[in-house]
Design a protein that fits this description.
Ferritin; binds magnesium ion
């Protein structure tokens, strides 16, 4: 059985993961509107990964006899300044998610809920990947700048990513 503060923290984190999915779906649609189907595809796959993160938390709550609370998800921004801004924002967003995971982890330690710390280890590692990948893409888009052929090349490369597969360094 999980403590009430732990249940609250997981329900809140689950909401963050669903919001991430919403945000990346919005970014995906925006990239599509820029005629960048590869970037759009990459963000769509990312959105699907975020739903999986949320579902992992939902299952952990259920497995531990916790109460699942589906909280209100904020509306994500629909407009962005550029493809570069999209990935900059995604990178900043992942940094916030890391901070939030760390908070849940800290609470699990305080509560001596070691089943949860073990469960959260996966998320801690996942955030290292998420920050690395989004940071690299933001940096590469900065390098490309106004160079259209460079942007199209990056778009082709990112379009290789398919749902259900984690992004690998080779793809980014
Ligand atoms: Mg996530």
């Amino acid at each position: 059985m999980m403590s009430k503060p732990m249940q609250d923290a997981f329900n809140e984190q689950m909401k963050h993961e669903f919001y991430s999915s919403y945000l990346y779906l919005s970014m995906s649609a925006y990239c599509d509107s820029l005629n960048l189907p590869g970037l759009s595809q990459w963000m769509r796959a990312q959105a699907q990964e975020e739903v999986k993160h949320a579902m992992k938390i939902l299952d952990h709550l259920l497995d531990r006899g916790g109460r699942v609370e589906l909280r209100q998800i904020d509306r994500p921004p629909a407009e962005f300044a550029s493809a570069r801004e999209v990935f900059d924002q995604a990178h900043r967003h992942e940094q916030q998610v890391t901070a939030s995971i760390n908070q849940v982890y800290g609470l699990a330690v305080d509560e001596r809920d070691f089943a949860s710390t073990v469960f959260l280890d996966w998320f801690v590692q996942e955030q290292v990947e998420e920050e690395k990948t989004s940071g690299l893409l933001a940096e590469q888009l900065r390098m490309v700048g106004e160079d259209r052929p460079g942007l199209l090349m990056l778009d082709r490369e990112l379009g290789q990513r398919r749902a259900g597969r984690e992004a690998t360094a080779a793809e980014t």
